[in-house]
Amino acid sequence: MFPWVYGFEWHPGYLIFLGVFFTVAVVVAGTVLAALWRSFSAVRRKQEGRIYWHTVFEDLAPEERRCRHAITGELPERCCDREFDCRGCRMHARLLYSDEAGARAASSEQAEVCGISLPLDRYYHRGHTWVREGEDGALLVGLDDLGRRLAGGDGIVELPAPGTELRVNEPAFRLRRNGVEARILSPVDGTVEGPACDGEALIRVRPAAGFRTVHLLRGGEAAAWMRHELDRLQVALAASCGAATLADGGVAAPDLGRSLAPREFDTMCGLVFLDV
Amino acid sequence: MVERLDEGWIARGVRRAPFDRFLLWAAPWAALLALGAYAIFLCLRDGLFHTNMDNRYVFGLWIFLDLAVIALGAGAFFTGFLLYVLRKTELRAVINSAVVIGLVCYSGAVLILAVDVGQPLRAWFTFYHPNVHSMLTEVTFCITCYLTVLLIEYVPIFLKNRRLALKPSMLVFEYNLHKVMVVFALVGTLLSFFHQGSLGGLFGVLRGRPFAFREGLLIWPSTFFLFVLSAMAVGPSFVALTTWMAEKVTRRRLVKDEVYQTLGRISGKLLLAYVFFKCLDTLLWINQTAPERGFPAHRFYEYGGAFGTWILFTEIALLGLVPALLLLKPEWRARRGLLIAGAAMACLGVTLNRFVFTIQTLALPTLPFDRLLLYWPSWQEFAAFGFVLAYGMLVYSFSYRYLKLFPQERELAMTEAKR
Amino acid sequence: MRKQGAEAGTARYAMFIDLDRCNGCGACMVACAVENNVPPPQPAATPRTGLNWLRVFRLNTGGRDAFIPVMCMQCGEETPCQSVCPQKAVEYDPATGIVGQIPERCLGCRYCMAACPYQARVFNWWDPQWPAGMEQALNPRVSVRQRGTVEKCNFCHGRWQAALEKAAHDGESGPVRYTPACAEACPAQAIRFGDLNDEGFAAECREEGVFRLLDSLGTGPRVFYRTSRAEVREATRGFGEVKRG
Question: For residue C236, which of C219, C206, C216, C218 has the smallest C-alpha distance?
Fold first, then answer.
């Protein structure tokens, strides 16, 4: 096998054969080592969150990846190809309101979709969190009504520690309830200042320089999206437990954790918070 | 509760049977595994006299099955090639399953080989003092390398288990392995081409066995190329067959229909090409190769019984041409029953081909005063094969239950509910 | 084993068997087993699993019985069994023309057995076992094989080695002469052993009526058979040879 081993022959067939073998061995080993090394450097550069979201997004079904503009009917059927980060999307840039005033969230409207309240004074993220401007330039982040109904009274939402860097679409919170664990995505780029004093919000975040909210849903868009979400959840739940939940115009129960069986609750958390 | 013992290990959004039902499914396979393990232990402890192989039938059930499962397991490399190199993205739905099938087939084959050889502890001699003129050396090197590649390809599937993926480092490693998967797909294709071919070459180079001997190109007999082609043809069929079986056992849809159609169409095309070249090769062998070596081909089939001409006809026409047509004609392929029948027949045909080259070659006498001898495996041989089968079923069941073998399952479950 | 052929001069050893003399007594088989440390058969052994380096077949002649001893043909340099061994456990020795089997290297894959058209190779399906006391009768010049390895006739290589050492001791040069156990034991002197480099012996092997088994395969066997009986020649003729004039 090696030149110093008895039986090694210096003729072309022998050398070609062993040459190919060693090349293959080196390529395979080298590729594995390269993957390992890149993994180490990714962990060092704190890329786990981005990689997590990329992996999750890949596993989403097409109806879970519907473009927000397809949900509102502005575009024909389309799947998001930017992992819900609309900030660099050309299609989204073209469809943004040219009217800047309309781009800001309306202040006093309140919508309701099948019993889920949807205050329109804030921006919504597709992971069921919301963002609102707080005092002195900080942003407030909280769970929307659907998310709160899942967390219920005895659910524990683990907040990121003050000083943590948050990035859009990367896990920020963890919900723990009944042995089920779900990661909740961050809607903002910024640094965590601390827990929020406002009852509804979870944390206060100092936004990163140049942070914009164009990737978040607002106004009528949010209502259309919530209807789409409830539709999607109902279908998925019917698939797993066979019982319709909102089929005949009923409203969502106040504490979904209590009214759902553990397996269904687990599936619901995954569907709502996009933690598949 | 025992039935929900492994809740946190099962992916979200898919349903799996309760844990006790899973144990009930696994129990008979575990029993078969235990019996097979005992048979293997007997052979390793006492010697190969526990088998019914003898000095004439030096290759028996085990080698025949090794060749058959390696041909069937070619679906792993070929699906990978089709997906990562030829970019047939619909096959993403079955690539994980194909990799597990391949892993099970190859590791099972290597395990059986370890029992089949008289001195398994000397296996490293082949690597350390290789004889490059031997096809078996080539097979050994390639299969070892390819098994390593398959294990590496299994790692990202394994790391995507829900509980394991909670650890960020696991997810990151899985992601990075996935990014370089095309390298492993290419290496796997290269290795598979050579070892599938060399398995054919094993018999094609036997100058002392005119039944098996074939002429060819340079150092490679025609069986080299025919084995590669038949393995590529039957790989997608076996993937389709196993997917269908998984759907039947689990009673849910796991892949979209377009996946079956792609697999069937590719398998049909390659099978037709294989039948064409096999006919050419057989005609050449009957009219030139065998007579030139002093053995007119009709003498090989005059024994009748298990080894009559029916075997040739069955292999090429009944289990070669017929499934090729079933899989090629779109109207027939569109019907699931016909597609699966075609895939199963293709798999049987290639298995029969491997049988012909191992068992029939050895059954036929070469010395003029010798006679046709028959062979039937011993219970230990059947049990050892049962071990591989049980091992395969357990690994596949375990992988199906806890890992995301079928990415489309979630989506299909949602669409099912909609209807 | 160290090759000493270069010093003693090369040879092309061959066997010449007269089928008209062979009466199927099997003495050659016994002598071979004794010389080469072949263990006695296990109770469960059959003719298909037993260790017989040399087998005497009964030929179906339709008339008076005839027998043919078959052992390893020591095929030429392109012997089918050498190229197929993945472990280089088969070595053709150009100094003697003997195809050597190296038991310490053999993996037991049995590929060489599949390659051999003469079915000359046998496999140790059991651990070799000798009844108590019989191990003292073992031939020290022949290695004992293990379970799971292939073995075959090697023209009594141990005897060649002994003859070589004696020749070196006596200061003789040239190819050594020795007699394998089977040739020595045959009561009818049906088996004769010689060197094809020896013109007299070679001429005998080229005579009319002398044939080799499976000549059409081109293996170059070094065992020659002779018979004057047409029905015996028919029974040993290969399938296609009738058609080839």
Answer: C216
CB within 8 Å: B176 and A63: no
| Domain CATH number, residue A206 | 2.40.50.100
Global ipTM? 0.91
Domain range for B90 is 14-414
Angle CA A6–C12–C35, to nearest 5: 80
A171 inside domain: yes
d(CA C237, CA A43): 75
Residue from the list C88, C117, C244 with its beta carbon closest to the beta carbon of B366: C117
Which domains occur in chain C, in start order? 5-237 (3.30.70.20)
Q: Do C107 and B367 touch (CB under 8 A)?
A: no
Of C108, C117, C238, the CB nearest to B117: C108
CATH number of the domain that residue B143 is part of: 1.20.1630.10
Task: For residue C113, list chain B residues with Cβ-Cβ distance below 8 A.
Answer: 55, 58
**A271 pLDDT higher than 50:** yes
Nearest CB to B172; choose among A5, A43, A235: A43
Matching residue, tokens 């779109």: B330
Residue to mutate among A38, A174, A260, with most B CBs inside 10 A, is: A38
How does pLDDT run across C61-91, given as a tens digit for each residue? 878 889 999 999 999 888 999 999 999 999 9
- B231-266 pLDDT, tens digit each: 999 999 999 999 999 999 999 999 999 999 999 999
Record the pTM. Answer: 0.91
The least confident of A50-59, B169-178, C236-245 is C236-245
**Per-residue exposure over B14-29, b if at least 16 CB sit within 10 Å of its own CB, e if not:** bebeebeebeeebeeb
